[in-house]
């Protein structure tokens, strides 16, 4: 059974000045002469964490992480102007050129996986391989499952806490209504929506492991994070519906691994299966006892094995 590699610190960090006053935090870890891999975090807006460095053998990989616009250590926090999927794809290109990388391995889960696939469709010649986990395809049906009629039937109690943040006559478009609260003048309403949205996502992601008291993000940062999440959701993630699946022919013929937990209630396994149907040469593995998040022995074992196998395929 594979486990995470030991904790490590960056050997270089950068704050890249971009357009629209955005400044993006980037770090490099591991072997500066190793196989370049970029870690793409989820959310949008969740930011990178120290353990994200540890899915890769630091002797073999040049590990690149960055906090997407407006979140984590990128500044200004919560900025929505100039913050779209297309901006994030171009940020990846800016980072790649800045670091002198010719091609890199894309590693992402959930929204990070969607971003990996979108980047590969836009810049196929710059991709050496792809590992995606907890497949999120950013379709209308995926958002409907999460916020309209789907997983709310699994956790009705937690769902009630969320929808009670708004009045009954606003619930026909929950995302838009929550976004209005987040940008209103009532600071208590902003905080309440942010906490309940975070709690809803955590409940669905973690299942029986979820505890309402476990929230770690300071509420001021949480408001910024949730504003970005709602900004992307309310704009259909700035892509046409079904865009990722419809453009899979643009993804390069490189090694691809698709991993998905059978008990993933954030992104049902149908999404991963549909992606594999469009990418039949990809390695596809459904993890029988895993959910959405990159935790637990089975999921971590699969991810670490995937990075090891990918190095054997493309490391030379």
Poorly predicted residue ranges: none
From the coordinates shown, what is the CATH architecture of the largest domain? 3-Layer(aba) Sandwich
Number of strands: 8
Please give the alpha-carbon distance between the first and last residues.
25 Å
Helix count equals 10
Shape assignment: globular
On the 0 to 100 scale, the average pLDDT is: 95
Strand content range:
15-25%
Spell out the helices and strands N to C: EEEEHEHEHHHHHHEHEH
State the fourth-level CATH superfamily of the largest domain: Alpha/Beta hydrolase fold, catalytic domain
**Structurally, how many domains make up the residues?**
2
Share of helical residues: 25-40%
CATH class of the largest domain: Alpha Beta
Question: What would you report as the Rg, rounded to the nearest angstrom?
Answer: 19 Å
SSE arrangement:
Layout: E1 12-17, E2 23-30, E3 35-40, E4 61-66, H1 85-98, E5 104-109, H2 111-122, E6 127-133, H3 140-147, H4 156-163, H5 174-182, H6 187-206, H7 219-234, H8 243-246, E7 256-261, H9 270-278, E8 283-287, H10 297-314
Helix pairs in contact: 1-2, 4-6, 5-7, 6-7
Description:
This protein is globular. Helix 6 (about 185-205) crosses helix 7. An eight-stranded mixed beta sheet has the order 1-2-4-3-5-6-7-8, sandwiched between helices. The longest helix has 20 residues, at about 185-205. A hairpin with a 5-residue loop joins strand 1 (about 10-15) and strand 2 (about 25-30). By secondary structure, it is α/β, with parallel strands linked by helices. It has two domains: about 10-135 and about 240-315, Rossmann fold; about 140-235, no CATH class. It is built from ten helices and eight strands.
């Amino acid at each position: 059974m594979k486990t995470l590699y030991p904790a490590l610190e960056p050997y270089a960090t950068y704050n890249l000045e971009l357009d629209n006053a955005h400044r993006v935090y980037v770090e490099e870890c591991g072997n500066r002469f190793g196989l370049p891999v970029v870690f793409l975090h989820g959310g949008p807006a969740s930011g990178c964490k120290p353990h994200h460095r540890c899915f890769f053998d630091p002797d073999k990989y040049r590990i690149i992480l960055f906090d997407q616009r407006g979140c984590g250590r990128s500044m200004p926090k919560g900025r929505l102007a100039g913050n779209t999927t297309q901006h994030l794809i171009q940020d990846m290109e800016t980072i790649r050129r800045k670091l002198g990388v010719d091609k890199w391995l894309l590693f992402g889960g959930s929204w990070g996986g969607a971003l990996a696939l979108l980047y590969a469709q836009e810049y196929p010649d710059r991709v050496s391989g792809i590992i995606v986990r907890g497949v999120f395809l950013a379709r209308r049906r995926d958002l409907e499952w999460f916020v309209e009629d789907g997983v709310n039937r699994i956790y009705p109690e937690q769902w009630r806490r969320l929808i009670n943040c708004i009045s009954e006559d606003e619930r026909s478009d929950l995302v838009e209504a929550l976004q209005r609260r987040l940008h209103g003048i009532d600071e208590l309403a902003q905080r309440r929506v942010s906490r309940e949205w975070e709690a809803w996502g955590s409940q669905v992601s973690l299942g029986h492991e979820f505890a309402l008291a476990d929230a770690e993000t300071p509420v001021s940062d949480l408001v910024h994070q949730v504003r970005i999440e709602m900004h992307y959701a309310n704009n259909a993630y700035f892509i046409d519906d079904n865009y990722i699946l419809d453009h899979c022919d643009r993804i390069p013929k490189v090694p691809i691994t698709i991993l998905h937990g059978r008990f993933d209630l954030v992104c049902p396994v149908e999404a991963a299966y549909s992606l594999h149907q469009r990418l039949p040469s990809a390695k596809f593995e459904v993890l029988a006892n895993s959910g959405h998040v990159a935790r637990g022995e089975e999921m971590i074992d699969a991810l670490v094995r995937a990075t090891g196998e990918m190095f054997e395929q493309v490391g030379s």
